Structure formats: C-alpha cells, structure tokens
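Methods, example record. To illustrate the input and output format used throughout this study, we show the complete record for Phytanoyl-CoA dioxygenase. The sequence lines were provided to the predictor; the line carrying structure tokens was produced by it.
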Amino acid sequence: MYEKEKADFLRKGYAIVPNFLDVGEDMEQLRGECSHVVAGAPHHSVDSCIYEPRRAIEEVPLCERPTCVQRLVGRLAQVAAVLLEGRVEDVLLLHEQYIAKPPHSPKSAFSWHFDSENVADTVYTPYASFWVCLDDVKHENGTLQFLPFSEGHRMSREQATALLSSIMVKQEYEGFDEYLSEHEAETISAGTGSLVILSDTVLHRSFPNKSARFRRAFMPQLGFSPIKEGGKRIPVLDPCGKPSSKKQKV
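The corresponding predicted structure is encoded as:
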C-alpha cells in the first residue's frame, strides 16, 4: 500500500494521492473548523494565510479534537509510517494548521522555502507534511510549485539550504523560468480531497489566490520526534497518553 507514493516521495520529495478524503461529512467538518478558526484569528494570521486551530500542539489533546481530525490524522499516520519507514505506533503529530488564501489576494503567495528550514539542529529528524485539499487547487487560486530532488533521492537540509540561497538570487534575473523548466519544476493541480505529501526538505512555493473564493487546505505534520525544543510527544494512535491496547498494521 502506498508504494507508488513512497517511490515519488523518495525520488522527488513529494507525492500526490487523488481522492484521499471523500467529499462528505468529514470534509464539511474540516471546512467548518477552518471557517471558525479563520473568523477568530488575529489580523497578522490573515496576512500570512496560516491559521492554527490550537495556539500550541499541547493545548488541546488530539482525542479532544473533532472526530474528523482524529480519523484523518489516524489514516495519515499509516501513510507516514510507509513513507518515513517506521512503525505506525511510533508516528507523532508534530503540528497542524489550516492554510486559507482569501479571494483576490495578490499578497497570498508564499516564496520558495522548505518546511524544516527553521527547525533547530538539536531536535531535527526527517518528517513529512500532509497537505489535504479542502477545495480544488489550481494555478488561479494559489497552487503549489515544486522543485524536485535533483539527484533522485532525499535532499539533506544542508543541500536544501544551499539550493534555496541559489534560487533566491536566480529568481531576480531573467531566465529564471528557463532554469525552473530545466530542473523539471512542477506546478500541480489537485482536486478537492486530494492529498499532497511533502518531504521536509523539498523546495516549493505557492502562487497567489486570484479567484473569487477562498482556497483552503489542512496540513498536519507527522514524524517520529518532536520538532521543537522540549516538545511533547503526541502519538497518533495513543492521543490521550493511555497505554495502547492494539496495534495497527500498515
């Protein structure tokens, strides 16, 4: 299961699973929570398009989060165990956020980056981000563009940092589009319910939302070790810290 996605993830740094989440009750609950979080967010969150349902991952236990979130994160733990090559019972929820780009928002683009660039070396271990499309995602409403791993295998953080520095310079000059084409940069389109999986070291950016509607995504991050100093371990299969009575197979 998920062997094709694992091959893409290891070779390119990202993978897409179409129709991962059905457009049904769980989707509507996620959209509802997204709307609630956006409505209650301070202005600085609106500027960045990033909205966190909890001020800190430890603030509300996972077992007290909406059932749609618990079900989804549980499924994602199965995928994470395959892609990151570990035991599903060891998968931790590291962070979660909604990314909601407002309509007609030219400033809602995200520049080139990789997800782990600000994680301290003392706590870093590889992890993955799971970008769940709550709307159809295309160029017009702020989709993602990836620069795949250049050597066909995972890029180290040192390599990603060097490449990012190079790109930030190159994009200021003519010929940058040709550079992206030569390096097989991919701009994705994904339907509602699709899952986009990102390695923490794959370089990517997103475009502004020029459409008349919000473009929303839910993005939990999963791995095997907390990514902040003193971070609490939150096992996905043991969300309340109780001894697990059963194990799941991948």
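Annotations derived from this record:
Residues 67-83 form the longest helix (17 residues).
Residues 242-250 have pLDDT under 50 and may be disordered.
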